[in-house]
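Many introductory courses stop at the sequence. We go one step further.
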Amino acid sequence: MPPTALYGFSRAARRAVDQALAEQSWDAVVFDSLMSAWALPTVLRHRLGSDRPPLVYLAHNRETTAARRIADASQGVRRLVKLLEWAKVAALERRLLAEADFVTANIPEDCEALAPATKAGKVAFLPPGYDGPRVVCRAITADMPRRAVIIGSFDWLAKRQSLERFLDAGANRLAAAGVELQIVGSSEPQYLAGLRRRFPQVTFVGPVADVRPYLASARIGLVPDVLGGFKLKALDYVFNRLPIMAMRAALPGMPLEDGVSFGLFDTHVGLAEGVLSLIASFAEFNARQEQAFAACADGFDWPQLGRQLMSGMKQRRVASLLRTPQHRLPHYLSRRCKSCPRSRATKPFGGRNCRHCNGLAVTGLQNPRRSSARCGVSTGCPRLSRVW
């Protein structure tokens, strides 16, 4: 498994998944990003002896592309390590896309790029929701500090690389013009300590319980990321009425217009210069934050997005069942197979014959190699053709 897929892994989490799968049947099993893919082998084993709940994959990014860019930005031995991780990510992402019955992505570009690897040949667009505070009215004036803020989590290598490149290009420029740059968000203490030594002119706040005071005391919010993928921090900026400046590739999936409701730049130097050119343009700042709020007000509602997800899951489950003829179902799921009815699918089959393959039914689901070897017709058994 690549490190990305093990980010949320623990023995306690694995026990919890095992227990949940064993206790009851589920309408669906949802993988929320590749970070949850450590549970894929467990879920696939569970499906061998169950009524095959559909798998749903909520893609947060094109993980293979992101891993490759991280590798390309590395050097020496580190590059070799990252190339190995990229290969692992690519294999895991392909497998998850191939196994999933329903796939969503949070930006249209990812829907198009991931679709060819899926069963259905398409990926549904499902942006994230926002349930945080929404500031009704805000005016940016000269009374506010000359401050730009970057919020987010900086545990992922790609985000760290983007942040450091921006600091290299813009920290001195902003400081020389009297613009304070404030970085707010979680990361390893050791990493933050290193940044404080490298960039003493920048304020590194670290993790906070509430970002709202920091958003309310800044004139502009920055997104220096060079990788795509939806950025949740952008919704915090928009609904707290903070004007946004970002790298051109940083904010796909947002219904905003460059030069009208936010500003986009091709380089980190350009981003820093853009801050300096507008830091005192209060009319422009206020017009942009008003336009951004209006554009996003109705597009990120959790209940609406939840209904959209449920509708897509139900349609994919029905379509999958309709496309699978009775004779193509694995024999441990088929009602026609008297040796393995659904109600006993997780129990040993006692060596009875299977009507579908005319061979000896499996006697142990936990050892698929041993089980498949006991099938009398290894090339024609639907179980073998579907599972192995």
